Amino acid sequence: MLNSIYRGAKTGSQAISDLLPHVSDPELRADVTAQKREYESISADAADRMIALGGHPEDVPAVKKAGLKLGVAMNTAMDASTSHLAELVIRGSTTGITTITRVLNAYTPQCSGISDLANRLICTEQRSIDRLKAYL
Q1: Model-level pTM?
Q2: N or C: less crowded end of the chain, CB within 10 Å?
């Protein structure tokens, strides 16, 4: 569960890092930068908890990172409008919610607070979606 949270937050952070060079709207930049900071906080919390439990975080596979970078490049080559960039982040957040909810529903709590961290990631994604709808 913690690895899923860690990788989900790391994937979101990486996707935003790849997207930021294409963002010209200062308000959108501020919103997605804040979302990136929250992803980084969640991934750090997940990593700390894994280490405390004797584990270690598994990084996002290089193939997935390359796929993210390529996907952002392809999606912004034809349309780098603020609306389209917001839509890309919304799609990513929706995928993140689906993925972590699936893992959470299959999870049998063994340590307190882990489900809370998963729900924090879900809430982060949902707040992002709600905030970015204004840019559509």
Answers
A1: 0.91
A2: C
